[in-house]
Amino acid sequence: MGESMSPARLWDKGYKVDEAVEEFTVGNDYRLDLNLLKYDCMASIAHAKMLAKIGILTGPECGKIVKELQRIKKLSEERKFPILKGQEDCHTAIENELTRTLGELGKKIHAGRSRNDQVLTALRLYYMDNIRECISLSKSYVQALNFFSSKYGRIRIPGYTHTRKAMPSSVKLWAGAFIDSMLDNIKLLECALALVDQSPLGTGAGYGSPIKYDMEYAATELGFSAVQKNPIYAQLSRGKFESTILHALTQIMFDINRLSTDLIIFSMPEFGYYELPDSFTTGSSMMPQKKNPDVLELLRAKYHVVVALETEVKAISSNLPTGYSRDLQLTKGSIMKGFMVTEQSLKVSALLFRNLKVSKKRCKKAMTKELYATERAHVLVEKGVPFRDAYKRVSRELEGK
How far apart are CA 153 and CA 151, in angstroms? Predict the structure, then answer.
């Protein structure tokens, strides 16, 4: 796999970079790029076919390169293709391997492109897969809430404002609020997907390609719905698209955050409306009686993690001049972590609602008379009593005056 050979940088000009500088500039990128390997192979396959289409590669040359790229892609999917720190990124690791196995032919793959449009393309493909995964998991979450609602929806529970009993509610009404909100979140994800679904391959380093690059052909090969033709905007969109995606993810995590707080409170022994299964609680190292809602507390906290990631991306990508700046490298880890946290949270939340129980007895006991005060006032209104007088009469009745 080329591990024994000295890694060649795509920008190498024959001088040695200071080790501390290399450590600082490469950072964690070579590890993060393990997530992009297969997508970069896909983009390189489309690029090779486009080079053959315009006559820079012959048919047989293209065939050999595509075969090697497919092999590397398979290895990457099996986590058997390493990226060395000295290679900096997945693009270099792949091209080094092509050169190792194909010799001079491997050196031809980079014609007409830059690492800038390479990483943009690989990231777009990665984003689309993960947005679709989030949409799928969001739908599974909705299904789990619907299952929970169909099982316990008829049970009446108190509705609260200002953390005080307000009016009658029900499990169905409560669960339905989070179902409706998640359906709106899916719309946000679909908007983010439509934005990302533009191929930047062929925009080069931000000012186009010197060769007659067929961007439409490359986009079709990769399954993009559109082409991002303005090469400067292709670079300006980095940071913009990531923050848009993360904003959609924060809305999902916002709902999970608030829902978790409800469940933490209403599963307290003092309330007991909801019953967390033992398998979703943890114990105390000191107090034998404890069954702690740690899962819900972590779900609640993870909203703030994703919000911080959105803020981080917006901060890093602002104030930059037109064109690519290395600052943007630091946004890669943020978006990857955002996807990971959100996907894990959706999976755990859906699993919880397939196991959560409702105590009909405790809910019935909680339906005390003050919850019906507003209803009582409107019964009087229907009998002709002015609302303000009905309001005061019911208030006096509740206070025992």
Answer: 6
Final residue belonging to a domain, choices 76, 92, 111? 111
Q: Within the chain, what is the greatest distance between any pair of CA atoms?
A: 96
Q: Are 202 and 113 in contact (CB under 8 A)?
A: yes
Q: Which of 314, 396, 300, 304 is nearest to 352 (CA)?
A: 300
Q: Tokens at residue 4, please?
A: 């024994």
Structural domain containing residue 148: 116-366
Question: Distances from the Cα of 119 to the Cαs of 116, 363, 377, in angstroms?
Answer: 6, 54, 64
Instruction: Give the pLDDT score at 14.
Output: 58
Model confidence at 9, pLDDT cuts 50, 70, 90, reads low
Structurally, how many domains does the chain consist of?
3
pLDDT tens, 373-388? 999 999 999 999 999 9
Same domain, 294 and 169: yes
* Contacts (Cβ under 8 Å, ≥6 apart) of 209: 112, 113, 202, 203
Burial 257-268 (b: 16+ CB within 10 A, else e): bebbeebbbbbe
For residue 106, the SS3 value is helix
Q: What pLDDT, on a 0 to 100 scale, did the predictor assign at position 172?
A: 98
Q: Give yes or no: residues 155 and 31 share one domain.
A: no
- Give catalytic residues, as residue numbers: 162, 284
Terminal-residue alpha carbon distance, the chain: 86
Which among 238, 204, 256 has a CA at the least distance from the CA of 331?
A: 238
Residue 166 shares a structural domain with residue 302? yes
Residue 165 lies in a domain: yes
Read off the pLDDT of residues 313-358 as tens digits, 9 standing for 90 and up.
999 999 999 999 989 999 999 999 999 999 999 999 999 999 999 9
Global pTM value: 0.91
